[in-house]
Amino acid sequence: MLRSVPTRSMSLRERRTMDTTPIPRSQSGTPTICWENFPPQIQHHYCSPIETRTDVHAQQVTSSASVAQNDCSAPSSSSNGYVKSRSSISSKKVPPEVPKRTSSISSRSLENRPHRSNGLTKTTENGSLSSVQSSGSDSSISTDRLQCDYSPMWKSKSGNVPEYAEPVLDSSLANITISSKNVSWASDNAEPSTSNGCKLISETIRKRQYRVGLNLFNKKPERGITYLIKQGFLENSAQGVARFLISRKGLSKQMIGEYLGNLQSPFSMAVLERFAMELDLSGMQIDVALRKYQQHYRMPGEAQKIERLMEVFSQRYCQCNVDIVARLRSPDTVFVLAFAIIMLNTDLHTPNIKPEKRMKLEDFIKNLRGIDDCHDIDRDMLTGIYERVKANEFKPGTDHVSQVMKVQATIVGKKPNLALPHRRLVCYCRLYEIPDITKRERPGVHQREVFLFNDLLVITKILSKKKSSVTYTFRTSYPLCGMNVQLFEAPHYPFGIRLSQRVDDKPLITFNARNEHDRVKFAEDLKESILEMDEMENLRIEAELERQKSSRVNRTSKAFYLFLFLASLL
């Protein structure tokens, strides 16, 4: 006769609730869901940019970044929308603030799928499973959301199914199998087999194509606009392009100015006129309106381009301020005054000009005598313009290059120029360099601060920490094009990342992450950036082949006409 398994005695609280089923005692004598059985939390050192973007039709859509907002603590200057890790609240040093992601296509919200591990259930609402969640902001440490997935011991206990089983990119990292061998290399080229994975792949490719279009615009604006129109991201009209330049992020202000000032392109000139029509300049002083006008782009250096930009501005200003223009004797006065304000701003705020040689108020008024159809403008009006321009320099709005410049200012040493129009910061992660995979190192040695840009991987080391800033020493950098990423597990390095050249598999550098979360998130961003650069390289090769083909055709045609000419002489 079989005896039933003995159960532990019920507590007083359980006796009050008779519906509660007694919990069977485990072999060790403690309940299996005792909190002491769970490994401690591991702090993340991964900071990923978040950006909620509009869809392709310029409609604001709430993306999956809203999931991360509950767990991310904003800095004091919340207007910038930067992500700040929760670890920074406990007076710990953090890397420079990471900008929002420039991907402009909002991703679909992930389904709330439960992720089970040893009886614990987690959903994507938890925060740690969101693809836009920064590592330091995952603060779900309550008992109802105990996070035990960052420990290699916990992962080995829960089998070979990875804890982060969310849908990932076409180069999925969720299918990585960690074995118990000494060193196991994981292939990260697996494709999701479900229909949801196919939809996610299609959406991921579209996002990548859009970022490629932004990169092309930030290198050659006309080519980028052509690519975005061809891919269906942009309406093929002057008004559609103008609204795109005004409303979308990820575009270099410098390149917007170059595009709007392209005097050789009739379409660019049409875009410039529609660009000005999209701005409301009503009820503003001319310098205030000009400041708003210039915030959307960086003024080009050529005088002819500046003249054309000021001409379009003056026309729009006259349309919005009929009452102000009515007090002037000539509508051309607005154009002359706007051009003079640009020159004044350059004179007052150029660092190379000595203070004693800068333009004075009397000089500014004297230079504008008789510009209103041989009459002078009101002195008080000119004085107000001079004082406002002197107090506040005309500057374009911030873009992704502004954030890259902030990061570059914190890095010392012989580093490459990071602040380029096409370069943007993707993420930051703290990793540990592995000199020899077979030798064990002390914990925390060879610490590296890794900055991932969309085309470059920069490796740095902390030089000094101050109360409000951190300074980094430049170590090395690697271009992403042609790079290969492999994840591995070794006895001393359970969260290994190996970077090598794709052509000859020559190793570049080997890292170990602090936990699985940092490794997976960093590898995902790195692989997606590599695919983005591979697409850019393919487009460059196609353009070069097309150019060579066109050049051969031109040479052939010239030779043919030369042959006909010589034949006619005979």
Protein described:
- The chain has 16 helices and twelve strands.
- Helices cover 38% and strands 12% of the residues.
- It is globular and about 85 Å long.
- It starts with 11 loop residues before the first helix and ends with a helix.
- Among the domains are: 199-391, Arf Nucleotide-binding Site Opener,domain 2 (Arf Nucleotide-binding Site Opener, domain 2); 409-539, Pleckstrin-homology domain (PH domain)/Phosphotyrosine-binding domain (PTB) (PH-domain like, Roll), CATH 2.30.29.30.
- By secondary structure, the chain is α+β, with helices and mostly antiparallel strands.
- It comes from Oryctes borbonicus.
- Keywords: Coiled coil, Cytoplasm, Phosphoprotein.
- One of its GO terms (molecular function) is guanyl-nucleotide exchange factor activity.
